[in-house]
Design the sequence.
């Protein structure tokens, strides 16, 4: 069921893009980048919802009614939470809108990893599984086996660069950094330490970079290429709205931004 709905279509899409680009070195890496762009286009409504939700949360922090509620019930966490949910409901704000697209990425991540491992099959058994998954219209003879070389890495293996005798996982570091930047840019400023949505978003901005960095460190580097491309596109998309909270990237930037406003 999972293979039919997710893995097989993704595998065939990757192979189709790879076939169009040509079968030389670096082409499968470019296929993953184009695949990521296509996924971004398909999930554009979800990304737009994420941007809209983040903007609504930022605007709420400047709302006089909300600021007065925070001051009035500063010592009553339960009442603040109740008032917060009331305002969310009245104004149609979804506090989970900024997190949902990230969570929805997980099936895509799993499917993409399986697709890459299937496409880069090396054993006879894996090749048989791949042959069964490929759609009839594919030019199997022309694209199998794939050339997994991309820049300095093998897309079918975890990436690292040897520096002074140490294996430095450069892509994993870049994945963690770009994930952190993207999450921080969309984080709403808040002067209330009891703001549950701000707390949740703050936790996500810490855990998601670590989690995706761990994926990039331990799995095929093709996954890292997908993460980095997706993160950069997300940063560009949000920065284009003019609402990117760049001060959040600095230590204490969230508090400084809130004080200025």
Sequence:
């Amino acid at each position: 069921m999972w293979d039919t709905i997710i893995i097989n279509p993704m595998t065939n899409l990757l192979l189709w893009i790879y076939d169009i680009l040509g079968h030389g070195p670096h082409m499968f890496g470019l296929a993953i980048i184009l695949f990521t762009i296509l996924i971004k286009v398909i999930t554009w409504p979800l990304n737009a919802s994420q941007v809209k939700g983040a903007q609504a949360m930022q605007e709420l922090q400047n709302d006089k009614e909300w600021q007065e509620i925070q001051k009035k019930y500063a010592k009553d966490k339960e009442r603040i939470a109740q008032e917060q949910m009331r305002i969310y409901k009245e104004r149609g704000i979804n506090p989970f809108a900024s997190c949902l697209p990230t969570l929805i990425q997980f099936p895509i991540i799993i499917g993409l990893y399986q697709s890459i491992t299937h496409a880069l099959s090396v054993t006879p058994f894996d090749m048989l599984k791949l042959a069964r998954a490929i759609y009839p219209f594919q030019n199997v003879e022309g694209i199998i086996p794939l050339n997994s070389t991309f820049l300095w890495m093998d897309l079918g293996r975890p990436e690292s660069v040897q520096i002074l005798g140490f294996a430095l996982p450069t892509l994993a570091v870049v994945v963690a950094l770009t994930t952190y930047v993207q999450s921080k840019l969309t984080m709403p400023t808040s002067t209330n330490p009891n703001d549950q949505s701000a707390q949740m978003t703050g936790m996500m901005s810490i855990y998601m970079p670590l989690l995706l960095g761990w994926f990039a460190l331990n799995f095929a580097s093709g996954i890292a290429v997908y993460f980095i491309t997706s993160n950069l596109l997300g940063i560009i998309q949000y920065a284009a709205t003019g609402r990117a909270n760049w001060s959040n990237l600095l230590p204490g930037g969230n508090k400084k931004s809130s004080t200025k406003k």
